[in-house]
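User: I'm new to structure prediction. If I give you an amino acid sequence, what do you actually give back? Let's try with this one:
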Amino acid sequence: MKVEMDTTRTRSAPVPHPSSQLTAQSLGLAPASARLRERRVLVVGAGQRNLAEEPDLMGNGRAISMLLAREGAAVACADKDADSARATVERIQGEGGSAFPVTADVAQPADVASMVQTAHGRMGGLDALVFNVGISNTGTLREETADSWDRVMQVNVRAAMLSAQAALPLLSPGGSIVFISSTASRAPGARLPAYEVSKGAMAALCRAVALDGHAHGVRANIVCPGLVDTPLGRYASSLRPARAQRLTPFGRQATAWDIAYAVLFLVSGESAYVNAQELIVDGGLSSNIVLQPGQASSPAAVGGEK
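Assistant: Good question. You get back a string of structure tokens that encode the predicted 3D arrangement of the chain. For your 306 residues, that looks like this:
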């Protein structure tokens, strides 16, 4: 999928046909409106895999961090990859935003506790937690092993629980927790049962967190992306080429900014009465709403993944 990702916001955006639903927001080009002024947010998984040929292609964690900062939040950018977390912070600071890096391996419980405490201490409080971490293995059900299964569950489910557990006592009233899941939690088409089960378990975890946080005025919700054109997505397609060849809604995959705006909504006061919900951001793909060959009435704004 080719998209002109103008993260510097100094060039004019491409003008796609409206049928593609590729908006200024989808390109990360919309003006900010201070929706998160004075909010303090910890984004777990704020770094990303890099593509040398397309250094400006956004991953979900970086786009989320940058958008929340553009909207006025101070952002603690946590990642296992210290260099990648710093790169996200540099992008934010280069736009005049407030951010700092935190290095943490969420597979290690002590790192999770330290990460949350560091974010809270550095920012003088905590208003939101975004958990954007997930790993997979390549094992089908027949190939799965106990160790590989446990590794996926440690990172995708246990770390999410530990992060929420550590954050809940520190989150201010009116706070928000957002977990990034996947539509893989609803469909086994990728034949990656450990990943699919871990993302399915996140829904139950979210409801438990929402119940526990309710008395303190803290909400918890999930964003479920479908196919997203990110560096990690392209890597997944290199392993499973059929992923990039699927028909898509509106003739394109989501951008990381599409996911970031869903997170922004759930972090902001605009979603004050939204709790324990899963917001699916897949353009209708999970309902089999896709653009058939020759169906578009005008040239597509974006093509298939490279």
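You can read the tokens as a compact description of the fold. Here is one thing that stands out. The longest strand covers residues 171-180.
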